[in-house]
TrEMBL record:
GO biological process: L-arginine biosynthetic process
Organism of derivation: Faecalibacterium gallinarum
Reactions that this protein is recorded to catalyse: N-acetyl-L-glutamate 5-semialdehyde + phosphate + NADP(+) = N-acetyl-L-glutamyl 5-phosphate + NADPH + H(+)
NCBIfam families: argC_other (TIGR01851)
Name of the protein: N-acetyl-gamma-glutamyl-phosphate reductase
Listed pathway(s): Amino-acid biosynthesis; L-arginine biosynthesis; N(2)-acetyl-L-ornithine from L-glutamate: step 3/4
Free-text function comment from the UniProt entry: Catalyzes the NADPH-dependent reduction of N-acetyl-5-glutamyl phosphate to yield N-acetyl-L-glutamate 5-semialdehyde.
Top EC class of this enzyme: oxidoreductase
Length: 312
């Protein structure tokens, strides 16, 4: 028997990529809606309520508008920021301790943000393990390909007459009020949000999230303990690789688009020669583990299917 799935918002970047992934899955029946129906929240709700599972690939306001009309029995995966810290919703990062079990029994799952996935993959284990205190003054820089800005930004970057400023990296979120900050703080268990600087660059997809650590603030914890702690935390997780302390590419550089087209995540740990500073790096594809890949992974868990089915 086929599993009925509806993608509300299938014309956006995330929705399109989810649809492409599911089109090749024989066990999935993708439900459709007319162009006029997509403009009517009640019509959309009817299709959602006829599905076993629905993806909401919508702006925050549109997700909040339709949810009250949805039957509680329908499994929902929301990709917006609307419910990532909301009561009654489960955060869709299965590799965090205990999270996979929560996802399995949930009917409301919020898919993590792309930048947030990278930061949380590093900060949450360290705080949870007691290696870094919850009040540590975290700083995070995150480099993303322009596809992270959706169809509008993709069009701007790929336009023939684009400004020359698009040729270089561009920092944004300069008011220090980025939409991913609430989940970065709450899911990581922090007492305050990190100082967060996102940067978009002239390549299609891929994300490199960096988190520096000042070891003198960590009460005698060593770089080796940090690296070993991360490795132990993610031991046995097929989608996340933790490299040993100091292991980096031969040329000493890590490119933001290295994992483009994959649904994996790789974590790197480096330290200064005297061990007083560390740099933690989370590398993945903002459209993979940072978006549609994470959504499909959560769908597989929710439906009791092979977790990595349809993942690269």
């Amino acid at each position: 028997m086929s599993i009925k799935v509806f993608i509300d918002g299938s014309s956006g970047t995330t929705g399109l990529r989810i649809a492409d992934r599911l089109a090749a899955r024989p066990e999935i029946e993708l439900l459709s809606i007319s162009a006029e129906g997509r403009k009517d929240v009640n019509e959309r709700a009817k299709v959602i309520n006829s599905a076993d599972l629905a993806f909401l690939c919508l702006p925050d306001a549109a997700s909040r508008e339709v949810i009250p009309l949805v039957d509680e029995k329908v499994k929902i995966l929301d990709t917006s920021t609307a419910f990532r810290t909301a009561p009654g919703w489960v955060y869709g990062f299965p590799e965090l301790r205990g999270q996979r079990e929560k996802i399995k029994t949930a009917n409301r799952v919020a898919v993590p943000g792309c930048h947030a996935s990278g930061f949380i993959s590093l900060a949450r284990p360290l705080v949870e393990l007691g290696l870094v205190p919850a009040d540590y003054p975290f700083t995070c820089h995150s480099l993303t390909g322009y596809s992270g800005g959706g169809k509008k930004m993709i069009g701007e970057y790929e336009a023939e007459d684009r400004p020359r400023t698009y040729d270089a990296p561009r920092a944004y979120g300069l008011n220090l009020h980025h939409k991913h900050l609430p989940e970065m703080q709450v899911v990581s268990g922090l007492t305050a949000p990190p100082i967060f600087c996102p940067i978009v660059d002239d390549y299609y997809s891929g994300m490199e999230v960096t988190v520096p650590l000042r070891m003198e603030l960590l009460n005698g914890v060593t770089p080796a303990q940090i690296a070993e702690g991360l490795a132990a935390y993610y031991a046995g997780e097929g989608q996340i690789t933790v490299h040993p302390l100091g292991e980096v590419p031969a040329d000493g550089m890590i490119s933001g688009n290295e994992l483009q087209g994959t649904d994996r995540m790789e974590l790197y740990c480096t330290a200064s020669p005297d061990g007083t500073q560390m740099l933690l790096i989370s590398l993945f594809d903002n459209l993979g583990k940072g978006s549609s890949g994470a959504a499909v992974q959560c769908m597989n868990i929710l439906l009791g299917l092979e977790e990595t089915a349809g993942l690269e």
